[in-house]
Design a protein that fits this description.
The complex is a heterodimer of chains A (204) and B (393). Chain A has 204 residues and is mainly beta. Helix content of chain A is 11%, strand content 50%. The chains are: A mainly beta (204), B alpha+beta (393).
Chain lengths: 204, 393
């Protein structure tokens, strides 16, 4: 009797499991209207021609500068040719809008003529325009100025000259700009080294 | 009894080792994770001086983020800053290039201060003043069943919530039947909820290398935060640069948010995740059906069966996924694993049915034999010594 009962229960269990298995057998959901398009048939990124702007003034020259070593050729005496005079401490603000502001505060230029010391003191501010290529810098058109030059030699003060705006002013020098320093020169004997200072065009 | 034990052992062998919740969540999520690359082209102008940085050809920068497909018909979400031209996005990348150039000219003192200074005042623009920078967005995903291939699609920015407004961008790519993941509607998950951040870290390698797999970083929600008034989660999962915009999922594989930002100077794993409510905000108003497709459900069902040890049925589901999307890399991978496990492996229910049926037949036969013997034993013995009803040929 016991075996009969076990047998009946086992068959019932097998049957029930079969029903459950058949009823519970999941099938994947139907998906999608059709096969997906191949990737090579689909739109890929394209590149449009790059836009450009007109060349700007060299970024390396833009900024605030102070001369650290400068040799200028100066017409000191009316009857003597230009004489080399050395100085430092002139400051320039070379602006991105194409203007330069030069500032001088008792800047001393020293030199000598036939063994006699000569001295020139510059004071004041002037503004002019600038353009540059990769190697040359050109100054033009003094638009504003209140500069004064005072000449001294072994006799004392000789004279003082006042600068005037000069729309026809032009001067082209060669330059090299790298790492916060500009070296400028020309064939006439002019040579100048500028060091960058914090101020205009300087960040941080 | 021995037979019952044998069936039990077979059942135990048939079931595979249970996967960790993270493993399962990663498996669900990875097919939908994409790499979002943006080429930026523009100039940087300091309005204070009028100076324009970038020269005639401008600056070109490429930024890389992660993203996730939320609807099979080509909708992808990523972090807003990944496609935003602001300081936290492409604008910042172009400003960084300008700073590097200026530093070469000796025009930068303290780099951090300089960056902050330019980020505050500088204008990042296109070829003429006031025009937007050029932005080319691409979405790359790894496809291919035998060998990985990269499918790169152009993307359009459908909607953009900048960092201050939620930091989510909705993109659209011209692709169909993509693997997508579900975005949860729960937006206030409690601290302690385990999560997984998934994406392509930029440091790991070039995401344009089709061999690169998305990385999963586990952690949990540390706190709920409001950033500029928008809901965020703070999570303890690590997220490297490049994972911005990647999905953060719960253990069910549902997107709870997108990797948004890592606070500066933070050395411990600590990241901010924009909450899913911001994703829904970006989706609102657009014809996006952000629900798992039949194909996604089949894939998840296949994974469930795979992790339950029901390999033949898992194969069936993965086959259905591959029939619809033959390049579904993960479906192919799990199908292969399931087939390796499942070929000739016992079916649990079938084993039970066979066991019960065998037990039933066995007990029925044994019962019949015993009953017959008892009946014969009860009959009177004839003179020939043979029981009646028993024939000998």
């Amino acid at each position: 009797m016991v075996l009969l009962a076990v047998s009946v229960v086992s068959f019932l269990a097998a049957g029930a499991l079969t029903v459950v298995a058949l009823a519970g057998a999941d099938t994947p959901e139907p998906c999608c209207a059709g096969p997906v398009a191949q990737a090579d048939a689909l739109p890929s990124p394209t590149t449009a021609p790059p836009a450009t702007r007109a060349p700007a003034l060299p970024q390396c020259l833009v900024g605030s500068w102070t001369t650290s070593d400068e040799t200028l050729m100066v017409k000191f005496y009316t009857d003597v040719g230009k004489l080399p005079m050395t100085t430092s401490g002139r400051s320039y603000e070379v602006r991105a809008n194409g203007t330069v502001v030069e500032r001088n505060q008792n800047v001393q230029l020293v030199g000598n003529h036939n063994g006699t010391p000569i001295r020139l003191v510059i004071n004041g501010t002037r503004e002019f325009r600038w353009t540059a290529t990769a190697n040359t810098i050109t100054y033009r058109s003094v638009t504003r100025t209140n500069l004064s030059w005072t000449y001294f030699d072994n006799r004392g003060e000789l004279s003082t000259e006042r600068d005037k705006p000069d729309p026809n002013f032009t001067e082209t020098n060669s330059y090299r700009c790298e790492g916060g320093q500009v070296t400028e020169s020309n064939s006439g004997g002019f040579h100048s080294v500028w060091k960058r200072t914090a101020g205009y065009g300087y960040y941080g | 009894m021995i037979r019952v034990l044998a069936v039990g052992a077979a059942i135990a062998l048939a079931a595979g080792a249970p996967a960790s919740p993270e493993e399962r969540a990663a498996a669900i999520t990875r097919p939908a994770v994409v790499s979002v690359e943006v080429d930026w082209h523009g100039w940087v102008r300091d309005p204070g001086t009028g100076e324009v940085f970038g020269g005639p050809s401008g600056y070109t920068a490429t930024t890389r983020c992660s993203g996730v497909v939320v609807a099979e018909d080509g909708y992808v979400v990523t972090a807003g800053h990944c496609v935003d031209a602001g300081p936290a996005g492409g604008g910042g990348a172009l400003v960084d290039l300008a700073l590097a150039e200026l530093a070469g000219y000796g025009r930068v003192g303290d780099e951090t201060k300089a960056r902050a200074q330019l980020a505050t005042v500088a204008v990042v623009e296109g070829a003429s003043a006031g025009t937007p920078v050029r932005r080319d967005v691409r979405v790359a995903r790894i496809v291919g069943t035998s060998s990985p291939e990269l499918d790169v699609a152009p993307a359009t920015v459908v909607d953009l919530l900048p960092p201050g407004e939620g930091d989510v961008a909705l993109l659209r790519i011209p692709r169909e039947q993509l693997a997508a993941v579900e975005v949860t509607t729960e937006d206030a998950l409690p601290a302690g909820t385990p999560v997984l951040a998934v994406g392509f870290p930029a440091a790991v390698g070039d995401a344009t290398d089709p061999g690169t797999e998305p990385t999963s970083k586990n952690g949990q929600i540390s706190a709920r935060r409001a950033v500029s008034g928008t809901p965020h989660y703070e999570i303890s999962a690590a997220a490297a640069p490049g994972m911005s915009g990647g999905p953060v999922v719960d253990m069910a594989g549902r997107v709870i948010g997108l990797v948004s930002a890592a606070p500066r100077g933070e050395t411990q794993p600590f990241n901010l995740v924009t909450a899913s409510s911001s994703i829904w905000k970006a989706l609102r108003g657009h014809p996006v059906r952000a629900v798992p497709s039949a194909n996604d459900r089949n894939f998840v069902a296949g994974l469930d069966r795979y992790y339950d040890g029901d390999y033949p049925e898992a194969v069936e589901y993965f086959d259905a996924v591959l029939a619809a999307t033959p390049a579904h890399r993960q479906a192919a991978e799990y199908r292969r694993l399931a087939a390796e496990h499942g070929d000739g492996g016992p079916d649990v229910v079938l084993l039970l049915i066979i066991g019960c049926a065998t037990l039933g037949v066995g007990t029925a036969v044994a019962g019949t034999v015993l009953w017959r013997r008892r009946r014969i034993a009860d009959l009177p013995t004839p003179p020939h010594g043979l029981a009646l009803g028993v024939h000998h040929d």
